[in-house]
Backbone:
């Protein structure tokens, strides 16, 4: 919940974000950006080779993780660390 709320509040999600929760937990959000090598599987129709496209359709028929361009925000890694024990 904290990560979703924080992402919705970010005006420009280009940098990692760290938070300390009231209960002592630590949280971190790290943006995932599409880089050039990612386009071989996650790019647009012109970026994905026909044999790769066929393999994606065979092994991941429900996949919707294509159509991205370089530098698109693809998603987030998030990490939580429990509070330190005394």
Residues:
């Amino acid at each position: 919940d904290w990560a979703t709320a924080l992402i919705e509040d970010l005006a420009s999600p280009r940098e990692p974000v760290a938070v300390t929760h009231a209960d002592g937990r630590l949280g971190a959000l790290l943006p995932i950006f599409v880089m050039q090598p990612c386009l071989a599987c996650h790019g647009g129709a012109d970026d994905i080779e026909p044999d790769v496209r066929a393999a994606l359709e065979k092994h991941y028929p429900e996949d919707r993780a294509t159509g991205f361009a370089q530098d698109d925000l693809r998603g987030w890694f998030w990490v939580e660390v429990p509070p330190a024990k005394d």
About this structure: The mean pLDDT is 91.
